[in-house]
Amino acid sequence: MFTLIFVCLCLLCCNLHAETECIPKTAEFKMKGDYLLGGLFGVHPVSATLHQNIPEAIICSSQEFSLSNYRRFQMMRFSIEEINNSTSLLPNVTLGYEIFDHCSDTKNFPGIFSLISVDGSVQPWKESVNFSKVIAVVGTGTSTATMTVAPLFMMDLVPMISYGASSSVFSRKQNFPSFLRTLHPNKDVIEIILRFLEKFKWTWVAFLYIDDDYGRDGLDLFVKKIKDTEICLAFSHGLEENTDYPKLIKQMEALRINVIIVFTTKKTAEKLIMSAIQQNVTNKVWIVVDAWSLHKELPKKPGIRNIGTVLGIGEPKITIRGFDDFIYSFKAQNQFENPEHDPLCNQMCNCSSVRVEDIITADPSFNFPVYSAVYAVAHALHAVLQCGAGSCNKSIKVYPHMVLEELIKSKFTLLNQTIHFDDNGDPKFGPYAIVFWNESGDIEEIGSYIFHPEQNFDINESKIHWHGDKKPESFCSKECPDGFMKKQEGVHKCCFNCTICPKGTYLNTTDPYNCIECKDTEWSAEGSTTCNIRQLEYVRFSDPTAIVIMTGTVILLAFIVAISVLFALNYNTPVVRSAGGPMCFLILGCLSLCSISVFFFFGEPSVGFCVLRYFPFLLFYTVCVACLFARSFQIICIFKISPKFPNISRIWTKCNLHWIFISAAFFLQAILLITRFSLDPPKQFTDKFYFDRIILGCELNKFVDDSLIPFILIFVLIFLSFGFSYAGKDLPKNYNEAKTITFCMLLLILIWVTFATFKTVVHVKFIDVSHAVATLSSIYSLLLVYFLPRCYIILFKSEKNTEQYFQDLIQSYTRSYSQ
């Protein structure tokens, strides 16, 4: 493919060379030397697209003159003269040059063919070691021009060192193996622009670019760079010759864009800025790139202050000593024509009218890249020729690929900068200056961006005088307050609504679009940015309520001991025998064992604590209720069943069925409890009803099924006792326990219904307190209701505690029952 292009262009060149009449070249474009360097500079760049009916070369000198490009052109000449005058670099070797005015990107090939030809002929099909008469080429100044001509130099590995082509495509060594450059690629410029936007928190921006290889590459890099950031590209547009700038500006105004990135060349930027002045654009921030940030005329244009604040990226001021003297000396010499060879159209300047002061004060952009490019070639040649102290080995035949090898490896110091290249041929040297167009029309350095050895972005904000006295903002939606998540609207992530994060969630700064749930052990209020550790709550032994309940339990035990002693001393009295005799001591013993459960409602719940909350109470209270049932049935059997069914009463008494029943109830309940708690014991659970704390308690798993069985047994006994006691409500007064047991059972039911209701409506640590109170109240109710009246008779009504008194009551009941 390259060969085909090469042949076609060669034929075109021959035709052009034969038919185009040109003006002779001046001496400043060519100088003889031991080794030649090529140079490509757009001294007269074509400012508009040329429409031609036949292929013909452009007469560059007829185009508009570029003072800044002419300054770069002179910088190359100065660099070579300085090297030739050096005694340490290439001693006894003279560098020559052949420079061409590369004014067009696509119609400017005669100079290119001249550089890659030998003795005026180009024969790409002929086997030869090298066709080029130059060892390296410095240029070109734009990405599009480089894209056009670079393949011609790549075929023979002629080093091409560009001072102005920044497109990222040239970093691909498989396509451009002999290409190097001394200015930073677009990716570095885009990196600085991104730092600008992040530093000043501008998230809603426009990107205007020149519609060529350079501009489109900048746009692609910018879009990729902001992909994972908070920055949104609100508007982008490629600038061409026929761009409608008033319409473009109105579109940006409609989108409320206050920050505009202008990634374009000098000529295109001039049109944009002048249109912005005419359209009365105000209070914008213009971020400009190195291609035009050091523009000499624009900062002084009338009305430029009104368009806003101009910040840019440019080369730092580097003083190259001797350059001004070189220009003065050159302009003082008489320039003459050199008719040695046939003239070429792109080696004519017509620059005699250019003043020395104009050259010296012209835009200095890309001057150091030119200077360092020439010196890089000189140092590479110095290595190829094995130069030592005062001499070089000129017997070595030098080919461009040899210079290329040394260029890639080169590393030297120039004006306090270490010049060397990375594997892609991109520079590993040279900082950028951050510039500000101040109110006096000067370009002021306000910071820097250093790439090597470590990236460092530094800017002095105090030197920036914002238009309107404050930093403009540029956003689609105002940033959400802390604790509010962003809910995107439309295609741009910068356009959103703010929604407060609910309780139990928080907003992490790394993900502003989602509220994250807190852990189970954490809590957060509405609109939080962090979660707090939930406070663990349970009833401690030191809690005043716990102390009161435990004191009540100790008093209960004291009552049980006192009643036991009183009943033991009066064991043979009718009151004790009518209360059940030995059964009373069983009930009192079981009540004391029930009270053990109360102490385990306090302290941090564990499996052991949870088991002991239920097991003693359920087991021994079952025995108490079974005793009441047996006692109720025994009395009913004696007074009501015996007259009608005497055998039943006799069997009940003779076989001691009441003890069998009590024992059966005890063992059945014990089996149920042991089985249940062994298979699935009650365990600690966390009540998270309150968002800021966790209530620790105990729960019985699977309560609805098998956990309910031990409770069913005790409730059945309670209701049976209640039924039989109610049936004996008309028995003799001292044997009539219906009221006592009925009241006791009703009290028990009331206690546990109250507790169950309280537990369902309240979610606090005092559920355990209420459970302990319910347990203690159940014990107290049975103790006080059943035993206290009998204690009262024993202590204060001894006349009622006689056999004669009981017999009189029985006889009175018998007479009334028989009637």
Written account of the structure:
This protein is α/β, with parallel strands linked by helices and 819 residues long. The chain folds into four domains: 25-46 and 62-183 and 320-330 and 343-363 and 366-420, 3-Layer(aba) Sandwich (Rossmann fold); 186-317 and 432-463, Rossmann fold (3-Layer(aba) Sandwich); 484-533; 544-818, Rhopdopsin 7-helix transmembrane proteins, CATH 1.20.1070.10. Helix content is 43%, strand content 14%. An eight-stranded mixed beta sheet has the order 8-7-9-10-11-14-15-16, with helices on one face. Strands 1-3-2-4-5-6 form a six-stranded mixed beta sheet, with helices on both faces. Helix 13 packs parallel to helix 22.
Q: Which value, in Å, is the CA radius of gyration?
A: 52 Å
- Estimate the helix proportion, in percent: 40-55%
**Secondary structure: number of strands:** 25
Shape: rod-shaped
Summarize the biggest pleated sheet: 8 strands, mixed
Helix tally equals: 23
CATH H-level superfamily title of the largest domain: Rhodopsin 7-helix transmembrane proteins
Low-confidence stretches: 1-26, 336-343, 702-710
Taking the alpha carbons of the first and last residues, their distance comes to 135 Å
Going across the major beta sheet, what is the strand order? 8-7-9-10-11-14-15-16
Structural class: alpha/beta
Domains (count)? 4
Transmembrane segments: 546-571, 583-602, 614-639, 659-679, 708-728, 740-758, 770-788
Pfam family, one: 7tm_3
Keywords: Cell membrane, G-protein coupled receptor, Glycoprotein, Membrane, Receptor, Signal, Transducer, Transmembrane, Transmembrane helix
Family: Belongs to the G-protein coupled receptor 3 family. TAS1R subfamily.
